[in-house]
Amino acid sequence: MKNKFAIFLTAMLVSTSAFSQKDELKTLKKIYEKETPSEKDIIAYKEAVSKAEGFLATANESDKVYINYFKAEIPVLELNVLMSKPENLSKPELATKLFSIEKVNQLGIAYADVIEFEKKSGKQVYTNDIKETVGKISPTILNSAVTLGTQKKYAEGAQLLHSVYLMDKTNADNLYFAASYAINAQDYDTALKYYDELKAMKYSGEGTSYIATNVLTGEEVPFTNKAERDKMVTFKTHINPKEQKIPSKRGEIYKNYALILVQKDRVEEAKAAFAEAKAETPDDVSLLVNESDLYLKLKDYDTYKKLVSEILIKNPNDADLIYNLGVVTLEANQLDEAEAYFKRALVLNPNYANAYLNLAALKLKPDDKLVAEMNKLGASEKDNKRYEILKKERVATFQSALPYLEKGHELSPDNDDVATNLLSVYNFLEMTDKYKALKATLKTK
Predict the structure, then answer these.
(1) Tell me: the pLDDT tens digits for 120-148?
(2) Do 108 and 167 touch, CB atoms closer than 8 A?
(3) Residue 343, Cβ neighbours under 10 Å: how many?
(4) How far is residue 302's CA from residue 332's CA, in Å, rounded to a whole number?
(5) What is the 8-class DSSP label of residue 209?
(6) pLDDT of residue 418 exceeding 60
(7) Taking residues 313-318, what's their average pLDDT?
(8) Region 85-92: what's the mean pLDDT?
(9) Sheet of strand 238-246: strand arrangement
């Protein structure tokens, strides 16, 4: 009899708890649905949230989802109260203060859980409310993330961007930017997690940007879609509508993903990541470019050259690629091949300063060897004859480098290393007037 009584008492307690839980949820729902809640309502709402949280351990899935949702909504309701006062309408900073990183994170998780639960249950209760709220508060949160970025607080910015993504998973751009911020914060594990999700959804970020010029400010403004842009042009608040193609970000994503893996000594996984990407988009030249960059960093020059050759077949007029191939062959001491690549880059881009500088370096490369041999010579007649031959070779070496150094200095006048090397060449070739003129310009800096 005692056991039965205990079971009955326990059942009564659970039943009472469930009723209390439902009462708190009713209170929360009632205040939540008010058009403009009062400050007293907010106090009552917070008390009801606090009581409802005490039931989370025994609550069913539905009640857990909605209790967490009502709790996360506290700053949104507080914002509604603040903005109901006319004197606060011109104070956007009030909204920023309400939405701390922790609260935004709670909102993101709660919104994602509600949307997922209601999608699964087939009964939409708050999904539309969430979409409307996200539309109102996300610009403020995104601006806060950008501000954190300018302050180099990338970890906090990444959290905000990820939270906004959780609020609206149809906009994966925010997840992409969250990954970029995580990289800047050197939080590579988080970046990998975000990139994994982007890869799984086959995100590319490719699209079209709809732009028009604001008549008042003269600045170009991007719009989320063509209809919105065209509407502003119709109202004559904006002019000069145009469209810009947004290139695919897949190459960059796989490159960053692979480079993180390399940094974590997971090189084979990095190589596999590029192989996976190329299997999906074999015509994406940016993937080949970034894969070649990986092998360049690994100093696997043979594979790098092979990949660049493939790229050049598809994109033969890429001066940067051809220049990079010249750098690789120069490092491998393949001087004739390197010279051909640098000169080819200059055909495509006659103002490619680094190509001129590397051609100069290439021409000066034999000088160390000539100087080393000259220093070993003695004072015999035979050695003196050899010295004169080597001296002429040095003069020819410096003369061959001179036009490239001069052009490089013309294109990069603020590069002190170039100016210093050019001074040395002028001095060696006894070009006194040019030496003094260049020396004078350096003194005035």
Answers:
(1) 998 888 889 888 888 877 887 888 888 88
(2) yes
(3) 13
(4) 10
(5) E
(6) yes
(7) 86
(8) 66
(9) 220-223, 207-214, 238-246
